[in-house]
Amino acid sequence: MPANLPPQYHEVEARLREAKTPAEKIEILQELLAIIPKHKGTDHLQGDLKRRIAKLRTELEKKGGRKGFGLHVDKEGAGQVVLVGAPNAGKSSLLARLTHAQPDIGAYPFTTLKPLAGMVEFENVHIQLVDLPPISSEHLEPWVLGIVRNADLVLLVADLGRDELLDELEGVRAIHERARIHLLPAGRPLPAPEPGHAVKRTLLVANKADEPGAGDRLALLEELYGKQLPILAVSARSGLHLEELRRRLYEALELVRVYTKAPGKGPARNEPVVLPKGSTLLEVATSIHKDFAERLRYARVWGHGKFDGQKVQRDYVVQEGDVFEFHI
Q1: Predicted structure pTM score
Q2: How many CB atoms neighbour CB 148 within 10 A?
Q3: Which of 238, 233, 229 has its CA nearest to residue 219?
Q4: How far apart (Å, rounded) are the C-alpha atoms in residues 32 and 25?
Q5: Where are the extended beta strands (E) located within the chain?
Q6: Hey, is 143 helix, strand or coil?
Q7: What are the residues facing 317 on neighbouring strands?
């Protein structure tokens, strides 16, 4: 089967030939892996790209003497959210309050030196939250932007305790723009990215809302950024609005939860199947087991706006809270 690679693949591949450092090569190889069509004709090429990425990561870890973490964070849970911000914005404190992770937290810059992940619980859904080293023109680990490029959602963290927050925020956004990563508002349709570019759903989290003068700084932030990005003021220290932040994470990831049941029994409400909005009944079945999906004839559904046990076919678009009884 031919690979049938899209034109943008070759454009990105040309940048790979010009890349100088292993970190740059890894980021571009990850772009190629995301662009490549997923079918049998590209299996060999996908495997080759993955082997090259693994080899470069090993090379980087040996050179830097870094063990215990790499330049990639495997996705877990319903979605991967990354914390992005200037030094001392409070990203690590947010990670500690929202998850069971135990990051190093200090009053000095660049306390976070490697990615650290934890799981945020929202009702019966688990969302992966990843703390990254700060974004600064003074120092930027080259692999950080690669992790941002691969994430499902960006939490852009602003520090309401500092008068310099607007300059810091602009600096962080400018660094992403130069890397062709565009931070766009969550909750709106995302445009198709140009070749080599990435567009990321983004929430602006204004941390340290209980600091002196935070109210005035928040008003200024909303005046300048309110039409660009959704803003939520929180405090990692006091817990202000952190429950609201959990809910917004789930909504911004644009997911749906559905449930399954056996005939004559109730649904397993503590074990939802979580999929992107717009998923079909067949995709629900596939997420459970590929063979099961192939044998699926139809399902009966319980949910809002439907009569109990309504029969639906494979192409039915699932809705939040649907309960399915599969028939094979």
Answers
A1: 0.79
A2: 21
A3: 233
A4: 10
A5: 80-85, 116-122, 125-131, 153-159, 181-185, 198-207, 231-233, 255-260, 273-276, 298-302, 310-312, 323-327
A6: coil
A7: 280
Q: What is the pLDDT of residue 127?
A: 98
pLDDT in tens, 4-21: 788 888 888 888 888 877
What does the DSSP assignment read for 72-122? -----BT-EEEEEESTTSSHHHHHHHHSS------SSTT---S-EEEEEEE
Which residue, chain included where needed, has tokens 């952190």? 242
Question: Could you tell me the two tokens for 21?
Answer: 């450092």
β-strands 153-159, 198-207 pairing: parallel
Q: How far, in Å, CA of 324 to CA of 280, rounded?
A: 12
Instruction: Copy the structure tokens of residue 3.
Output: 């690979």
Measure CA 316 to chain center.
Answer: 26
Report the alpha-carbon distance of residue 208 to residue 264 in Å, rounded.
51
Cα separation, 210 vs 216, in Å, equals: 12
144 vs 205: CA distance, rounded Å:
19
CA dist., res. 137 & res. 142, Å (int): 12
- Using alpha carbons, select from 1, 12, 20 the residue that is nearest to residue 36: 12
Dump pLDDT digits (tens) for 41-98. 788 888 888 888 888 877 766 665 444 444 689 899 999 999 999 999 999 999 999 9
146, 25 contact by CB (below 8 A): no
Q: For position 108, what pLDDT does the model report?
A: 47
Task: Provide the token pair at 326.
Answer: 């599969």
For 141-164, how does the pLDDT look when each residue is reduced to its tens digit (9 = 90+)? 778 999 999 999 999 999 999 999
Domains of the chain with CATH codes = 7-64 (no CATH), 80-252 (3.40.50.300), 256-327 (3.10.20.30)
pLDDT at residue 2 tops 80: no
SS3 label, residue 219: helix
